[in-house]
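Need tokens for this chain, all 309 residues.
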Amino acid sequence: MARRVVVLGSLNQDLVITVARLPHPGETVMGQGPGYYPGGKGANQAVAAARLGGQVALVGRVGNDSFGGALIKTLQVNGVDTSGVELDPKMPTGTALIFVEEGGQNMIAVGPGANASLGAADVERAVARLRPGDLLVMQLEIPVAVVERAILDGGRAGAVIVLNAAPARRLEPALLSRLDVLVVNDREADVLADHGNSPEDAAAALRLMGPRMAIITLGPAGSVFCDQTGVHRVEPFVVNSIDSTGAGDAFMGALAVALAAGLTTELALRFASAAGAAATTELGAQAALPRLDDLRRLFDLDLSSFAEA
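Here are the structure tokens for all 309 residues:
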């Protein structure tokens, strides 16, 4: 039986405006919108995993407001167990302001709201949902102290610890050394470690900091990873990209599902890359997250090994 995925992370209401080009500091650019979409890296990754067949639970916080209620309902519709999502009586639901330019590049600012209130009790709720071998997936849109405690407690519970170190920030080597999987993009890799000029050098440098596997996503250039066998490149899937907002979260959700299903590293990374590419073909974060049928349709992808796992 496939292992479960427990996500400890953020839930946000995304406000999206599409523009011809991203604004410069001090500049006003007229655009189209706004569009309102459910988001937050934790919620996005939980939905991404659930849509691809994972058994997924999310632990987090929302405000006791209309945004929070709508976010929980959307998660439930997508098959995510929301029993670990608490209503915060003092803080509003987190909000992200997103500009998306033609071609898919974006600019994002996040007001964390209730996500900033996560603490020890939330870690306990997440760890209580873990069986040995289950995956604990986290990001950095929640307090780092919460992530640190969850890494320790989740490891003691026998979980596979997966950290998407985004948004970018420095982390202590002692923390990184407790990770099974570290996932960053190229900008986040620059923040975490000094390395050579190539993504391959960066992946090797990150793994030397302690995680069992380090993965760097490179957008339309694919990804690289470094594990005990060395550094490897995963070629990209080519799509007509219109919005890259949810691509990293789609990658993370798919990676978690593939690892939970017991796929090899190479197959798991290719599956994740396909999901990340597919997510850029529609507007919005959660709205664009693919299902298995979408991957088959877009890429004629052979998912027989995934189905058998």
